[in-house]
């Protein structure tokens, strides 16, 4: 079960770093989760730092054991985690919730959270996926350099208990991760695409310093984004294209 046990930490540099240290001791059971009231050096995608005021948001890392998933199917894990977070967040924020490729959580065109998965390999064996997530819950003031943040409190007008929400999040993740079986890969991917921000809709993107209008046409089983640009469909990996959000 995801989140059993769930450890509450006062302060860490990064929950992903802390979880990695615990996994390396060999004493961690799959599904173990760590929630931090504060982290001093939180990690986001592509080396970015993720900052959060103490106690206001969900700062969570879960040690997942991919089991039967081969390394070639890494994206299936990412999609399942994103769908689990989507299921949970949409319960509270409503049906304007979406997944922005590859695994950010959006409400309308604003970012509510992100996911960072770091893999532990032993030779060719996928031992663990250290799965971190940061989700804006009660924060209402954000650094000016963030282009489009939003929190659950801003959406609903309510103040939430972040730890209780975390327990519910773990339950939603558990439901989705139990579907990680070859028989469910196709339906999982289709469900992921049905929740995708801007899927089939025109939007502005940037690639190689060029801004252009594009349309997301598909996401492949390996996670590549199929983006139509000037009548040509490009297959792009993570980090190769940037979504442009107009304030």
Helix content: 10-25%
Question: Which shape, going by the Cα principal axes?
Answer: globular
Q: Kindly identify the CATH topology of the largest domain.
A: BirA Bifunctional Protein, domain 2
Through-space gap between termini: 40 Å
CATH domain class of the largest domain:
Alpha Beta
CATH architecture of the largest domain, please? 2-Layer Sandwich
Structural class: alpha+beta
Overall pLDDT confidence: 93
Number of strands: 12
Give a short account of the largest sheet.
Answer: 7 strands, mixed
The whole-angstrom Rg is 18 Å
- Looking at CATH, the homologous superfamily of the largest domain is Bira Bifunctional Protein, Domain 2
Secondary-structure element order, N to C: EHEEHEEEEHHHEEEEE
Query: What is the percentage of strand-forming residues?
Result: 25-35%
**Count of distinct structural domains:** 2
Q: List the strand order in the largest sheet.
A: 1-2-3-7-6-5-4
Q: In terms of per-residue confidence, which ranges show pLDDT below 50 for 5 or more consecutive residues?
A: none
Q: Figure out the total of helices.
A: 5
Keywords: Ligase
GO molecular function: biotin--[biotin carboxyl-carrier protein] ligase activity
Pfam families: BPL_LplA_LipB (PF03099)
Protein name: BirA family biotin operon repressor/biotin-[acetyl-CoA-carboxylase] ligase
């Amino acid at each position: 079960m995801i989140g059993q046990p769930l450890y509450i930490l006062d302060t860490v540099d990064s929950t992903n770093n802390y979880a990695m240290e615990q996994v390396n001791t060999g004493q961690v059971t799959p599904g173990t989760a760590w929630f931090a009231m504060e982290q001093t050096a939180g990690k986001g995608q592509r080396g970015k730092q993720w900052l959060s005021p103490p106690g206001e948001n969900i700062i969570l890392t879960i040690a997942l054991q991919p089991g039967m998933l081969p390394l070639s199917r890494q994206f299936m894990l990412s999609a399942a985690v994103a769908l689990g977070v989507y299921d949970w967040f949409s319960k509270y924020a409503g049906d304007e919730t979406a997944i922005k490729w590859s695994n950010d959580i959006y409400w309308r065109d604003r970012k509510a959270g992100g996911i960072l998965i770091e893999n532990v390999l032993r030779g060719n064996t996928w031992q663990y996926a250290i799965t971190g997530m940061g989700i804006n819950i009660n924060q209402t003031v954000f650094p000016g350099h963030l282009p489009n943040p939003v929190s659950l409190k801003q959406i609903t007008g309510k103040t939430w208990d972040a730890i209780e929400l975390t327990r519910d999040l773990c339950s939603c993740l558990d439901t989705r991760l139990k579907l990680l079986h070859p028989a469910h890969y196709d339906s999982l991917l289709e469900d992921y695409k049905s929740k995708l921000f801007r899927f089939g809709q025109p939007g502005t993107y940037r690639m190689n310093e060029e801004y252009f209008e594009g349309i997301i046409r598909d996401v492949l089983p390996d996670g590549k984004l199929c983006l139509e640009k000037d009548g040509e469909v490009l297959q792009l990996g993570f980090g190769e294209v940037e979504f442009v959000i107009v304030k």
